[in-house]
Amino acid sequence: MAYEKTDMNNRKTKKRNDLIKAAIKTFAQKGFHGTKISDIAKKAKVADGTVYLYFENKDDLLIKCFEEMLADLMQKADEKLSTIEDPLAKVLTFIDLHIDYCEKNPDAAKLIIIELRQSPEFYKKYPNFWPVRNYLNYLNKLCTDAIEAGRIRNVNPELLTTIIFGSLDFSITSWLLSKSVINLKSIKEGVADILHKGLEKEANNEK
Amino acid sequence: MAYEKTDMNNRKTKKRNDLIKAAIKTFAQKGFHGTKISDIAKKAKVADGTVYLYFENKDDLLIKCFEEMLADLMQKADEKLSTIEDPLAKVLTFIDLHIDYCEKNPDAAKLIIIELRQSPEFYKKYPNFWPVRNYLNYLNKLCTDAIEAGRIRNVNPELLTTIIFGSLDFSITSWLLSKSVINLKSIKEGVADILHKGLEKEANNEK
DNA sequence: ATATATTATGAGTCATGATTCACAAAGTAA
DNA sequence: TTACTTTGTGAATCATGACTCATAATATAT
User: Fold this and answer.
1) Is B152 in a helix, a strand, or coil?
2) CB B34 to CB A199 under 8 A?
3) Do A95 and A184 share a domain, yes or no?
4) What is the largest CA-CA distance in chain A?
5) Which of A31, A166, B82, B149 is the most exposed place for a label (fewest CB within 10 A)?
6) Least confident piece of the model among A64-78, A152-166, B72-86, B125-139
């Protein structure tokens, strides 16, 4: 009775991807509230109503955009980091990767950075969903490993995670708002440098 | 002809302040787009139309809220920092002050943090206005002084400013979204600790 | 007390844009 | 080709909320 779904599924999947791409681009450009569903539909070359065949509503679409993007980012990190042994090097490489990704995908970067923070109201509607949480957990794991291996001095890993992410996040925000003031390469080196020096285990004390 | 305006001015000033306070509270709670002018009016106990006697429109009101708040924050910083000599101590004290202020004024903190980043569209409408810029300049000055005095090693001051602000900003964001995970005191100490160690001029090298 | 200037009111206007739904097109099986 | 299922369309609906404006209240001056 059920007929061959493969083609259909491919078609649907492709259209879904088109929609996500269009949505990311538009959200990045105009912000969440500045974006009309019809903008996204037009960019994806479908009718307005079609959007609702693939996503519950506008909120859902935003959330799905995040999920796709962060999943992509973490998958890329997995690949790269699996070739590295030293836990401290993993943390530093992660910093590089994050910045590189934002540089290569400025729309994604804008989405992460500008729309990351919806109002508390927004998140109240979706209590278990804070888009970055998965990503922070990933970084947290790297930090914890490096601390346990004694490659970073014994600081609170959650706090360290927060500081690293916050530094990157705001650096990239500044970069996006005024490309000229600061360049990404120096951000990459500078953040790593300061954090590294702030973190390396000293020859003498503690733990 | 012009009659005694003093009382009127006081009354107007007071009402303006009431409106700003109500707006900060409401924006903090519901976000910019989630806030209705009528919400603010109700909280300030005035009619909707009254809001427009004091502010151009909703955007203008948001901007004025920032201005008030950051001015307040910097004034407090001026007072405190003027009693301190050592430029490095100034930077570290500034970190303390920022966190203390956010702890004591969580509504203000939310406004700074959550509404800091309107969409690029928003800022395109007001090209010369990026609310944090003044504040970053203030911090930048402190960093530059500390570097020039040789109390911090020779890093790019703009980058350092960005990293400090980013760390604080995101730490406080996390704190606001999930009070339990991390506490502000440890954030304060941790950020200062890591940055301090990452920044102190080493006995040996450079500059 | 009266005239005038200032400030406040809130119901009504009006544009906007998310979402729906009756209908159309395209795909699949026989 | 025919019957049926899935997918797509976009005009119409409908709620929302920023902003206006005719009117009222309050303050000041003389």
Assistant:
1) strand
2) no
3) yes
4) 73
5) B82
6) B125-139
